[in-house]
Specification:
Elements lengths: L3 E2 L2 H23 L4 E7 L3 H16 L3 E7 L5 H13 L5 E4 L9 H7 L11 H8 L8 H14 L6 E5 L6 H10 L3 E5 L6 H6 L3 E4 L17 E4 L3 E5 L2 E5 L4 H5 L4 E2 L7 H19 L11
Parallel strand pairs: 1-11, 2-3, 2-4, 5-6, 5-7, 7-8, 8-11
Antiparallel strand pairs: 9-10
Helix pairs in contact: 1-10, 6-7, 6-10
């Protein structure tokens, strides 16, 4: 395997370290403590694990962590009331409502209720529009993490041919906007794309975010290209459940110049960027300089 393995776990630890240093300076110089509020509705096991991890890492970097756990039977009106209180709380700089929500709630209504300047998930329509028009926005965490990894690897991305496989609102579309912002030539490919293999083969950068296990084989990859695998899929192999990405790692690693593994690639960057977004939101709300290298 000739590809350089992009160590997202190590890079995420570095991001958290830089966040912690900036948080310490905010406390010392301004008496400000960034605060992140996470709201979990119901008892989805994966969401519970994720929320625990977020709370732990929030505290580790010196931020204030506010966790709100609500029963699955809570009404949408009660959830919206909580969001309103968090919007008005000056100690809370970032608000994240863990998705998915129970079926009797409208995710759109809840996301829209969050103050866009505290929307550290970057899902609010105001932030979507700001990102699309090149304005200062809160950027979704996973695409931001991918961008950080790419910038660290390549420096400038200007002029590179990028293909994003997947058009979700959470990853695909914002990833394309970020790459456009860094002057890439961007193609968004998806399930209806004709000659998908040929489209991918011309790319210097491939970001796979389709949610289909090992969909992208090595013979789709341009020799020397960088492959960012956002997918996290559970498959049964040799009687065990294992995690794999959206690309066939073994065959792609033989062709690519650099590739993210699954696990240990993009995944750790998501929470690290959530913390970075909370820090950014805190600095913006207090009229202070934003941390360098932690924003888009």
């Amino acid at each position: 395997m000739g590809a350089r393995v992009i160590d997202g776990k190590a890079f995420a630890a570095d991001v958290r370290g830089r966040v912690a240093e900036h948080v310490a300076r905010l406390k010392e110089e301004h008496g400000i403590v960034p605060g992140l509020a996470v709201v979990l509705v119901g008892e989805d096991p994966a969401s519970q694990v994720y929320v625990r991890s977020k709370g732990k890492m929030t505290k580790e970097v010196g931020m204030a962590s506010f966790e709100h756990r609500l029963d699955a039977s809570v009404s949408e009106a009660e959830l919206l009331e909580l969001v309103g209180r968090l919007n008005a709380d000056p100690a809370v700089h970032g608000i994240l409502v863990q998705l998915p929500l129970p079926k009797h709630m409208s995710e759109s209504n809840v996301i829209t209720a969050i103050d866009p300047d505290k929307d550290v998930d970057g899902f609010h329509i105001f932030n979507v529009g700001r990102l699309a028009t090149g304005q200062k926005a809160m950027v979704p965490c996973t695409p931001l993490g991918c961008l950080m990894l790419l910038r660290d690897l390549h420096g400038s991305l200007s002029g590179m041919d990028a293909v994003v496989i997947g058009r979700s609102n959470i990853v695909g579309k914002p990833m394309a906007q970020l790459l456009l912002g860094d002057s890439c030539t961007v193609t968004v490919a998806h399930s209806r794309t004709k000659d998908l293999a040929d489209v991918v083969r011309r790319a210097d950068l491939v970001v796979a975010a389709v949610g289909r296990a090992e969909m992208v084989p090595g013979d789709w990859i341009k020799p020397g290209a960088t492959v960012i695998d956002v997918g996290i899929n559970r498959v049964e192999r040799d009687g065990k459940n294992v995690l794999v990405g959206d690309v066939d790692y073994a065959s792609c690693a033989e062709v690519a110049g650099a590739i993210t593994p699954v696990p240990g690639g993009v995944g750790p960057m998501t929470i690290a960027c959530l913390l970075a977004n909370t820090l950014t939101a805190c600095c913006r709300s207090n009229g202070l300089p934003e941390p360098e290298g932690l924003t888009a």
